Amino acid sequence: MLIGTKFKGVDFYNTDDLLTDDEKMVRDTIREWVDEKVIPIIEKHYMEGTFPMHLIPEMAELGIFGATLPEKYGCANLNNVAYGLIMQELERGDSGIRSFASVQSALVMYPIYEFGSEEQKNYWLPKLARGEKIGCFGLTEPDFGSNPGGLRTKAEYKNGGFVLNGTKMWITNGTIADVAVVWAKLDGVIRGFLVEKGTPGFEAPEMKGKHSLRASVTSELVFQDCWIPEENILPKAVGLKAALMCLTQARYGIAWGAVGAAMACYETALEYAKTRIQFDKPIASFQLVQEKLVYMLTEITKAQLLCIQLGRLKDQGKANYVQVSLAKRNNVYHALEIARLARDILGANGILNEYPVMRHMNNLESVKTYEGTHDIHTLIIGEYITGFSAFT
Amino acid sequence: MKVAVCVNRVPDTETKVKIGADGKTIDKTGVNYILNPYDEFAVEEALRVKEKFGGEVIVISLGGSENVEVIRKALAMGADKGILLKDDSQRDTFSIAKALAEVLKEISPDITFFGKQSIDYDDQAMPSLVGELLGIPSITVVVKLEINEDGTVIAEREIEGGREKVRGKLPIIIGAQRGLNEPRYPSLKGIMAAKSKPVEEREAPKFENKTEVIEMLLPPPKKPGRILGTDASAVPELVRLLREEAKVI
Ligand SMILES: Cc1cc2nc3c(=O)[nH]c(=O)nc-3n(C[C@H](O)[C@H](O)[C@H](O)COP(=O)(O)OP(=O)(O)OC[C@H]3O[C@@H](n4cnc5c(N)ncnc54)[C@H](O)[C@@H]3O)c2cc1C
Ligand SMILES: Cc1cc2nc3c(=O)[nH]c(=O)nc-3n(C[C@H](O)[C@H](O)[C@H](O)COP(=O)(O)OP(=O)(O)OC[C@H]3O[C@@H](n4cnc5c(N)ncnc54)[C@H](O)[C@@H]3O)c2cc1C
User: Fold this and answer.
1) How many independent structural domains does chain B possess?
2) Which domain holds residue B126?
3) CATH code for the domain in which residue B11 is found
4) Total-model pTM
5) Cα separations in angstroms, B81 against A76, A209, B46, B185
6) Which of A100, A181, A333, A373 to mutate to test the pocket of ligand 1 (most atoms within 8 A of CB)?
7) Nearest CA to ligand 2 atom 28
8) Angle of helix A240-275 relative to helix A321-345, nearest 10 degrees?
9) A383 an active-site residue?
10) ipTM for the predicted complex
């Protein structure tokens, strides 16, 4: 570890002063881990389209999974700002790594914690925290993405349990998951169910052919007369609102994660521009290039401030879902723009896997779409401020 | 087993050092500080000793109140309690060693770990000096350590071109070299737990410095390179200069 921390961070407005010593130690720990363990191997996994499974026990050991949940379930009980900083650093490595941690924490452990029975919590949370079990979250269906309320997967009460029928699509971690949090309609009402890997009538084939999030497993979940015992329903997960509460948690983490990807692109572009000579000068000396770099720094700085204040509000129990939408929408949009500009500044080198920028750029296209597309967040905020719903 | 680790707070290895206005200290503005990298090996080894034999790990650091940061990092990695020996003055290696020895004498650990050197002033003297002051054995530049139930200690230390196996007996001082182990990351739970671990703050015992820094100097700026030619015809001259001028071949 003699090299120290390689990534110095982008902190133009001394936002570090807004963090506590513990929050900084959490961030620096994950930062160092990402520099040492993720960045050296991620391009290979991305090119091969595989998730680096060997990192799961290490992430568990660090305490990343369900990091905000209480100690009695084997979790670290961090605040939301520290959790956000973890997401930022993970996504500075790769959106796929952050996605894995987001799904495990915000979309699997959170709903079990929030809507599960005491038995479900005691059984699942420690195992998920230790990374012994992997989870996934099945909401999206082939015909219902932005409009999950219309989902068709059905649950019927039968023989002291439930029979599930339907298909989920685009499910992160699906194929590698030991447990799926599945959203299905029981008597017309959306409910959450836990379905274990290997349950007869449940298959989770991997989806291939992605140009984005290649170091992440994306799957279909297929249920054909899949019977699960009665105790597998999440008792308190009733209605679409429960699923949306999970999404709010995950979107919060994404808002931070996008800053990490943006920082990686900015840092790469800045270094490159200072050393790349064209027309006998470093390209960093040209106005057009400076304009791009200044835009990047400006948007990263604004996004950081959004995240920290949103995290503080969340810790005080004052953040609402619309504020989370604004941060997800803004930060991912600008992170993607920053990645595109970084790609441009690197010229032809920008398309190579020697540099992280095109990988981040491609990843961010998914990030812009999942967890509510950019435009859907526009409609959420638009409805909130005008009082008019523009969804239909 | 009572285990102590002495840790230092040093400028990040990537710091571009500037000399301060007094000409005797570095300019601290914008400098990022870290736990001395060799001390990470020391902390890790201390934790392993505790995990094997039971007992506790006490972290000691001498310096300003900022040094609490490096104590907290060691606590987050798993150490049990910290002692901050507060002192803002400029000390030489000897007066630091005297202060540490005095405190270690009081604590009387079975084994005390240091990094083999601090990457700031690079003296490489602390483990041996403290050992001498306490009148106990010290082994430094250690890359492998074995402690037996009967209190004998076998340490492998790096020497020029090879290794040396040395035997000693508890209580002992060990100076950790890179390679001794792979330091763990503090876990997030560890970071949270560190908040409630005790850090005792006391004035560092005062001792006279034996030496005084009179000036700090940066290395002379690099001379620009010389181009002897751009094709194979330049090779003989290059070889001559490497041999006669640079004396590297
Ligand atoms: C890599 C990846 C991983 C994913 N992981 C998960 C997961 O783990 N679990 C899960 O449940 N889902 C997951 N998803 C699915 C993701 O949440 C959906 O893709 C997303 O909600 C968008 O749905 P859709 O793809 O069906 O697009 P559509 O809803 O068909 O949207 C297509 C376009 O139409 C626009 N649009 C839709 N409705 C309106 C409207 N009313 N007004 C204006 N414009 C509109 C959208 O903004 C978008 O531009 C993942 C997706 C990807 C790409
Ligand atoms: C897949 C691929 C195939 C290719 N095929 C061929 C081929 O068949 N034959 C061939 O000859 N070449 C080929 N190229 C090379 C291509 O034409 C160059 O990449 C292109 O001209 C840009 O040069 P560069 O990559 O060195 O970027 P650079 O010139 O280093 O530019 C880097 C960045 O600096 C900016 N910049 C440079 N100068 C200035 C300035 N004065 N003011 C403001 N901004 C400036 C650029 O706009 C860019 O954003 C190929 C490239 C790729 C990616």
Assistant:
1) 1
2) 2-203
3) 3.40.50.620
4) 0.92
5) 20, 53, 13, 18
6) A373
7) A347
8) 30
9) no
10) 0.88
